[in-house]
Amino acid sequence: MKRLGEQKWMLIVYAVLLITIGLLELILSIVKLSAAVQVMSYSLAVGLFIVGLMHIIVSLVADTKAFFRAALILGCIAIAIGVILCIHPYILEGLVVLFVAILAIALGAVLIAKAIIAIVYKYKGIWIFLYFLFATLCITFGVLILVFNSKDVIAAQIIFASTGAFIMAVGIFLLIAGIKAVNQKNQSVQQ
User: Fold this and answer.
1) What is the 3-state secondary structure (H, E, C) of 77-102?
2) What is the pLDDT of residues 9-64, one digit of tens each?
3) Alpha-carbon span 21 to 44, nearest angstrom
């Protein structure tokens, strides 16, 4: 039970780190784009180092008789990608643009599917309209990203600023979930 409580606090720490990285990304993408790319590359590299080390340690400590350990290979790959991002931080710029574009188009497609399912099951309400509206915005945003690419400085700033805002949103969501989990634990202890 003590370990579960520690994981909840780690979730809160992780959320605060994500909010900080997202805020840095958002501010730096507006002020100085090259610094935003570096912050994203270095923060991703540090995350990959941590994940890679965890995988390697788990694979070496785990009591398994298997010759092939996927965790060991995944850990080595994560550390190798982290090293590449540290050496060449600007390699991430083109990949982020492509990833955000694909993510936006995929999210739009999912929202269209949700709206169609809601129509088929005869749900009523404004949600169907909002699904179609948000899907249209996501697909348009994704296509515009692909068309303008990162060659245009303003488009790159918008892409990195929206990526920073997304990272902050994930951090805020995790922070709320962590605080709720800690509060639920405290309430159950008091009863």
Assistant:
1) HHHHHHHHHHHCCCHHHHHHHHHHHH
2) 777 877 888 888 888 888 888 888 777 778 778 887 887 888 788 878 877 776 56
3) 10
Query: CA nearest 39: which of 98, 83, 100, 90?
Result: 90
Going from N- to C-terminal start, the domains of the chain cover 2-190
Tokens in use for 159?
Answer: 């892409």
Residues of the chain with pLDDT > 90, as a percent, come to: 0
Closest CA to 172 of 43, 55, 30, 11: 11
Alpha-carbon gap, residue 191 to 116, rounded angstroms: 46
Distance CA 187, CA 20 (A): 29
State the DSSP code for 127: H
How far is it, in rounded angstroms, from Cα 21 to Cα 27? Answer: 10
Supply the mean pLDDT for the chain: 77
| Cα torsion angle, 30, 33, 39, 45, sign | positive
